[in-house]
Design a protein that fits this description.
This protein is an all-alpha fold. The chain has one domain. It is about 70% helix and about 0% strand. Helix 1 packs parallel to helix 14, helix 3 runs parallel beside helix 7 and helix 14 packs across helix 15.
Length: about 400
């Protein structure tokens, strides 16, 4: 969900991979979809025309997970692990913690401050704000089957993704140890694994009655596992999932994938199309070619992707403070124009807070942790890795 490679250090091996700006941008679009979903939930009874299009905005989280597996493969597949699995695992997990934990901690403490000092905030969700669940959130294990939603509700996905980060060194080791020497056999194996992964993903969802992906935060590990693995696998056959870049067929193929993703996003009856279509779209955008890749490479789009983790992590608290003030009177404006202005203000405030958080929390904290970790390993930071912020 929040993937940027660690700073390049002496002795790490492979050089930093090429930046994939389009994938950074679609992460921003997905985060914005989740924000608009939760804003729509606030005014669901008003049936707001524009926001109703985002009723399935939780699918943005599924995009995050597929993208995360793809990017982890992109960044680390060429890193030798056999014979140095322990050192790699420590360095990898440190880099991932540097990326996700400072902001997670900041939003968790912000939620604690709101519960303690904003009258009426805690009682709105009496089951969310317990001492035990606070400790689980501190340890990033709140989504490991212990509890349901708690504290900063959206952080459930960060807990689930942290679990996948713990598994990732094993995935990478298995890939390097068991990979067939023949390129054709390797591709055949990956396609079989992709089919199995998608089949199990959909079967589990249907078996548990999750056809609309609703209520999955308490069991997000299942959701994360299959989608992260799918992204990891798709990376290894990415060039076989789309026509040769640069021609008309490639452009039409890309537009068809966007249409499939949009169909599933707008009509939940086609939910089963979303994950495979997103996986193929990510592979296509990963080529850095085509009209949509160029549009997504525009600086404003890339910046939205860069701040998307902060946007995702802060927006729920912004919305809940707004809802409290609205219920208590200061923002009780029920005119149609007033409601749309409230929606706009929540979105803009979330974006502003995300920009500030990215500049003042995310980047400085990550750089500080990575510098200290590099010194502890006796390494010298030799430069800034090219960001793969997808």
């Amino acid at each position: 969900m929040v993937d940027t490679p660690p700073p390049q250090t002496a002795g790490q091996g492979a050089p930093a991979p090429t930046a994939l700006a389009p994938l950074t941008s679609i992460r921003g679009i997905a985060a914005l979809a989740v924000v608009l979903l939760h804003i729509n939930d606030t005014f669901r009874h008003e049936h707001l025309v524009f926001l109703r299009a985002f009723e399935n905005g939780w699918l943005g989280v599924d995009l995050f997970f597929v993208l995360s597996g793809f990017i982890m493969a992109h960044v680390y597949t060429r890193t030798p692990v056999r014979g140095r699995a322990g050192a790699f695992t420590i360095a990898f997990l440190q880099a991932r913690l540097a990326r996700i934990y400072p902001l997670h901690l900041a939003t968790l403490l912000a939620a604690l401050a709101l519960v303690l000092w904003l009258p009426g905030f805690g009682p709105r969700y009496p089951t969310y704000f317990g001492a035990g669940s606070f400790v689980l959130n501190l340890l990033l294990v709140q989504n490991w089957g212990f509890i349901g939603s708690s504290w900063n509700m959206v952080s459930w996905s960060i807990s689930a993704e942290w679990f996948m980060y713990l598994l990732f060194p094993l995935m990478l080791l298995a890939r390097q140890a068991l990979w067939p020497a023949s390129e054709r056999r390797a591709a055949a194996l990956v396609f079989v694994l992709i089919a199995c992964t998608l089949g199990l993903h959909h079967a589990v969802i249907l078996a548990r009655g999750w056809s609309d992906y609703g209520g999955m935060s308490a069991s997000g590990m299942v959701r994360v596992f299959f989608e992260f693995v799918l992204g990891f696998l798709v990376y290894h056959v990415r060039d076989r999932l789309h026509p040769r870049p640069g021609g008309l067929v490639f452009e039409v193929y890309g537009l068809a994938l966007w249409a499939a993703v949009l169909l599933a996003f707008l009509d939940r009856r086609y939910w089963f199309v979303f994950v495979p279509a997103v996986a193929m779209l990510i592979a296509t955008l990963g080529s850095n070619r085509g009209i949509t890749a160029r549009l997504l490479g525009l600086r404003p789009m890339v910046y939205l992707g860069e701040i998307s983790f902060s946007l995702y992590m802060w927006h729920w608290l912004v919305i809940q403070v707004h809802n409290l003030l609205r219920d208590q009177g200061p923002l009780a404006i029920d005119s149609r124009v007033g409601i749309y202005l409230q929606c706009l203000s929540m979105a803009l405030l979330s974006l502003l807070l995300a920009a500030l958080s990215y500049a003042w929390i995310e980047k400085p904290a990550r750089a500080w942790i990575n510098r200290r970790a590099a010194r502890a390993r006796g390494q010298r930071v030799t430069g800034r890795a090219q960001d793969i912020k997808a």
